[in-house]
Amino acid sequence: MTEKKNIRIILNPSAGVKDPPLSLFNTIFKKAGYDYDIVMTKERGDGYRLSKRAILDGADIVAAYGGDGTVMEVASGLQNSKIPMAIFPGGTGNILSVELGIPHNFEAACNLVTQPESSRVRLIDLGSTNDPDMPGFVLRAGVGLEADMLEGTDRELKDKFGIFAYIIGGMQALKEIKESLYHLVLDGQEVESKGLTCLIANAGFFGVPGLTLDPKVKVDDGLLDVFVIQKTDLVGLFSLAASLVGGTEKKDAAQHWQVKSVKIEAEPVQATQADGEMWGKSPIELTVQPNSLKVIVPA
Asked: pTM of the prediction?
């Protein structure tokens, strides 16, 4: 008789979905003969701590139910472990699930776990910081405008408008944003560049259907993609993505480097964020961790 799989579900009750489908968890996993338990996050950092606890408790699979911040914390806790992560989209952006082709439909996402013939385990990269108090990141870190966009977007707007709430936050941020001089150290090489924001991408998807930051950005290539955006308006930032998707690069829109490590200082000092969570102020130092996370994705 096959041993029951034990699934630890880490659920963020304050993510975008107001009513987590707890009864569906019971129906789906009980029918499949899987054992599961649910633990809830209460404050920042709980996803990381709870995933570490799941490893010690012998979980076979750890699932994140929430938004991008929840996924980031759970992924950071599972980094370099043998335990795969499942993603059950339940937040505002759910960008990594789209990047990896994971269904947004809740039951279909659960079926990737309960019907292993329909799924596979994919190794992806994570980004890490030199600050031991900060988790890593799965999608993107940002210094400047993107962090200000996030800071200007409250939970009520996210619940009402979803991903487009960030555009509203961005419009507010543009009223006060000023150009900064970025001092970059890219794999040991020093570079200076002026811009509104510096983006450090592990994955390229923007969160808006059809838009990716750059087709060259891959979640499993062992590199971080560093961009300095020099456009002076939010439309320029999104038109950059649109032009790249269409294959027409705007050479003056952004500078782009692919590196394994980057240190960023900004004059004046700017706010920083990663995967939808505020990180404080610059400077920051980031490094890629290749093939360090196992994720259950469609076959």
From this structure: 0.83
Q: How far apart are CA 223 and CA 125, in angstroms?
A: 8
Most confident of 16-30, 239-253, 259-273: 259-273
The pLDDT confidence band at residue 238, using thresholds 50, 70 and 90, is: low
Domain annotation for the chain: domains and CATH numbers: 6-124+293-298 (3.40.50.10330), 140-291 (2.60.200.40)
Cβ-based neighbours of 127, under 8 Å, separated by 6 or more: 136, 137, 138, 141, 200, 202, 224, 274, 286, 287, 288, 289
Q: Write down the mean pLDDT value for the chain.
A: 82
Let me know: does 129 contact 235? Beta carbons within 8 Å: no
pLDDT tens by residue, 45-81? 899 999 999 999 999 999 999 888 899 999 999 999 9
Tell me the pLDDT tens digit for each residue of 94-109: 889 988 999 988 899 9
